Amino acid sequence: MTIRPATIEDVEALARIVRSSYDHLPRDHVPYEMPLYHPEHHAHAMEDAATRWALLCEDGWPAGVAMWRMLPGLAHLHMLFVDAAYQGRGYGVRLLR
Question: So what's the architecture of 2-96 in CATH?
């Protein structure tokens, strides 16, 4: 397991992680459509210089993502998602650290 900064080349993987993170929930609890499901949303968000992105990979496969906005005197967690296939392994906690 490794954690590295996410880049614009990772936007497809970020969208996939977000979508798959809902796989274990009942369908009526899953948002029908969210901007986070689409790579274009992440590409646009990465244009914000105040964001910091972390991508967790297991054996080279993107499995989790976290994103913070860093403002003077404030760090705000905006996203934390773990692929459903990798949930329950403590990866969310590692991304927070």
Answer: 3-Layer(aba) Sandwich (3.40)
Is the distance from CB of 3 to CB of 55 less than 8 angstroms? yes
Contacts of 32-41 with CB under 8 Å at 24 or more apart are 36/79, 36/81, 39/11, 39/12, 39/14, 39/15, 40/11, 41/15
The tokens for 27 are 């369908």
Q: What is the pLDDT of residues 25-35, one digit of tens each?
A: 888 887 778 88
Domain boundaries, the chain: 2-96
Other Cβ atoms less than 10 A from the Cβ of 2: the count is 9
Read off the pTM.
Answer: 0.91
For the segment 34-88, what is each residue's pLDDT rounded down to a tens digit? 888 999 999 999 999 999 999 999 999 999 999 999 988 898 999 999 999 999 9
